[in-house]
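Ops channel
N.P.: pipeline sanity check, posting one input/output pair.
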């Protein structure tokens, strides 16, 4: 079934043929692995335990009733132990095993380069009590640390990766492609549960020979990769590097437009440096070493972008196909790449250099606007500040800012109008106990509305993001206060019904005779409930005084007993006469 812009949904939950159960020399399950070829298994270094270790690889997804078992060892030096980098973040922890006897090539799987943000994934591991293997589901949250590892949020608390899952393949739920490998699971001090994986690109960086078992184009175009010449000529623009690192590490700006001219070698080299360092596959020890002495705040983390493209000489349709491929939106219908991107709920962090050098810049800008509207983050680099640059600012910055401001104006009008009116209307009917004054909040909302209405220049004027936060805060408070006032009004109505019910009960018990003390209590409670605004707390105390006195008068022997079912008394149902007959009846009208 094709969903989400032509993505083929994978619904099979069978044991995958590529899933490997690994046992140590003691016969205990050490972890999981991924069959990448007839004689290669990928797993975590900590599962192996050391370069000279011998493990038993068991193929639980093999056809038939048996589980084939084959001895496996580290393939030459394809072993990168788990370690901590200079920042204390984990890195490495990958190993490639070679089998003593090959498996059927058709049982193997290839790793796939695929952007990961917010993707639903599945992994097949072998935790305690599930030696035969079990599927775990999760959602990719985002990158963590500088090595390019990825954090995943379990679909349920029981699906966090546990011992026996390390080394398991992580499969994209929509495409079925294996995009990474499980590293570990964790419960933090706050009780939050997370699993971690290393994506295909990070694995290839640590184990270059795994590239032979990896498909999908790399995330960075060749023209955008940092070169040895960049370092040799010492080309570096520190301020530009800081701005790039801030944006790549998500400074809250969804779209950034910049100009890097052909004659600005320093900025061009700095841009290539940032793109290279932010890519999981290209961020090598050599490239990081070059930046070790450079100013802090200029070095992005691996995985800070998902795709970096050079638009020079390319049509917008070619760019769309490249982006759709990276998103995993492969064509299974007649939809164009742009349509697949438009209808899919997939986002990515995209860098496009040379936007104004594309074959059709206006069409490319329309595509980029689709990505922006869908929630993707965009860094767009132009070669000149000419007409295409101005068009981009109008289409991608000014128009969205104006539309955002217009939506914010309508929202503030609703807050200061109908929502505020509803709160004040409720406050006029009940005393707002526990509801603080809202004057300062409403004054701030009115001031924000005035500033937004006064703004004239598209994209200019007040800080819309700050006013968005103000609108969120004031709206939440007014909604919360409205809910509290409605609760007080409901309590007032409940007390009114209770008072009426007890009044009927009292009248029947006294057969119309006057009882000044009780009548006074009733009138006081009645008056408080009818007051505008009603002091619900005072009315509740008065109703309690009245009902306790009625209970004491109507209970035979003077033994006060609270009654909770007064519906029949309120409606006038009578089971007889006298104090004892004044209570509701059961069983066809027979007195209790």
């Amino acid at each position: 079934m094709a969903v989400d812009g032509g993505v083929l949904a994978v619904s099979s939950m069978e044991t995958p043929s590529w899933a490997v159960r690994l046992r140590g020399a003691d016969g205990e399950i050490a972890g999981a692995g991924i069959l990448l070829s007839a004689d290669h298994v990928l797993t975590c270094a900590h599962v192996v335990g050391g370069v000279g270790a011998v493990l038993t690889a068991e193929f639980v997804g093999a056809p038939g009733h048996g589980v084939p078992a084959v001895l496996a060892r580290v393939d030459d030096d394809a072993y990168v132990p788990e370690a901590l980098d200079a920042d204390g973040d984990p890195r490495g922890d990958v190993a490639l095993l070679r089998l003593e006897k090959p498996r059927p090539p058709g049982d193997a799987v290839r790793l796939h380069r695929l952007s990961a943000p917010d993707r639903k994934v599945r992994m097949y591991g072998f935790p305690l009590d599930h030696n035969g293997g079990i599927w775990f589901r999760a959602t990719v949250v985002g990158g963590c640390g500088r090595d390019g590892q990825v954090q995943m949020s379990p679909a349920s608390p029981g699906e966090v990766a546990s011992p026996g899952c390390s080394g398991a393949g992580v499969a994209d739920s929509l495409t079925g492609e294996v995009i990474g490998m499980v590293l570990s699971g964790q419960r933090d001090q706050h009780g939050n549960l997370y699993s971690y994986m290393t994506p295909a690109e990070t694995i290839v960086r640590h184990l270059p020979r795994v590239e032979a078992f990896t498909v999908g184009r790399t995330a960075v175009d060749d023209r955008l990769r940092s070169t040895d010449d960049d370092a040799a000529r010492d080309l570096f623009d520190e301020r530009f590097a800081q701005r790039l690192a801030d944006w790549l590490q998500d400074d809250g700006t969804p779209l950034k437009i910049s100009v890097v001219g052909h004659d600005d070698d320093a900025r061009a080299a700095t841009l290539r440096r940032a793109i290279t360092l932010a890519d999981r596959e290209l961020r090598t020890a050599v490239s990081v070493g070059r930046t070790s002495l450079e100013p802090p705040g200029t070095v992005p983390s691996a995985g800070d972008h998902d795709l970096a493209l050079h638009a020079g000489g390319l049509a917008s349709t070619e760019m769309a196909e490249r982006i759709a491929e990276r998103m995993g939106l492969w064509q299974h219908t007649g939809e164009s790449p742009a349509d697949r991107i438009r209808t899919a709920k997939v986002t990515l962090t995209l860098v496009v250099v040379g936007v104004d050098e594309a074959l059709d810049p206006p069409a490319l800008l329309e595509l980029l606007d689709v990505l922006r509207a869908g929630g993707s983050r965009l860094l767009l680099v132009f070669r000149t500040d000419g007409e295409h640059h101005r068009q981009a600012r109008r289409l991608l910055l000014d128009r969205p800012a104006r539309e955002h401001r217009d939506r914010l104006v309508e929202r503030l009008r609703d807050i200061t109008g109908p929502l505020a009116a509803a709160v004040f209307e409720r406050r006029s009917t009940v005393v707002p106990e526990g509801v603080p004054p809202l004057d300062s909040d409403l004054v701030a909302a009115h001031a924000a509305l005035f500033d937004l209405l006064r703004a004239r220049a598209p994209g200019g004027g007040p800080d819309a993001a700050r006013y968005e936060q103000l609108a969120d805060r004031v709206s939440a408070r007014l909604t919360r206060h409205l809910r509290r006032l409605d609760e007080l009004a409901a309590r007032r109505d409940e007390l009114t019904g209770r008072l009426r019910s007890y009044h009927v009960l009292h009248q029947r018990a006294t057969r119309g005779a006057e009882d000044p003390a009780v009548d006074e209590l009733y009138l006081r409670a009645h008056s408080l409930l009818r007051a505008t605004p009603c002091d619900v707390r005072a009315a509740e105390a008065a109703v309690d005084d009245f009902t306790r006195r009625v209970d004491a008068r109507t209970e035979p022997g003077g033994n006060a007993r609270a009654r909770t079912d007064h519906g029949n008394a309120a409606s006038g149902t009578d089971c007889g006469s006298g104090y004892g007959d004044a209570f509701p009846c059961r069983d066809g009208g027979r007195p209790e």
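N.P.: looks fine end to end. The mean pLDDT is 84.
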